[in-house]
Specification:
Length: about 100
């Protein structure tokens, strides 16, 4: 039995900065993560940082991560029945693991 059978590819562009009046565009970031995905078959909601409640399609469980994956990052989930594409809705990290709601 494979503990982390699914793969999540995430990509986003970091915010740009101003240095001495010159704008420096943000870097493009890409990550490929291994984990376990579960579909949201009940239409459960999550609360975003601004207090809104939204429906998510998948929750992706993985080991703790130091990456700060932003809300709205492009995500492609590969699982046993195919692939799914969408955006990151929320990231939750604790001592024992992390969850990414898609």
């Amino acid at each position: 039995m494979d503990r982390y059978p699914h793969t999540l590819a995430v990509s986003w562009t970091e915010e740009g900065t101003f240095v001495d009046g010159e704008y420096t565009p943000g870097d493009a970031k890409e990550l490929t993560l291994e984990g376990r995905a579960e579909a949201n078959g009940r239409g459960n909601l999550i609360r975003t940082d601004d207090g809104a409640q939204i429906v998510y399609a998948w929750v992706f469980y993985l080991t703790p991560t130091d990456e700060n994956i932003p809300m709205g990052a492009e995500a492609t989930l590969t699982h046993e029945t195919g692939t799914w594409s969408g955006t990151v809705k929320r990231l939750g990290v604790n001592q024992r693991g992390a969850q990414i709601w898609l």
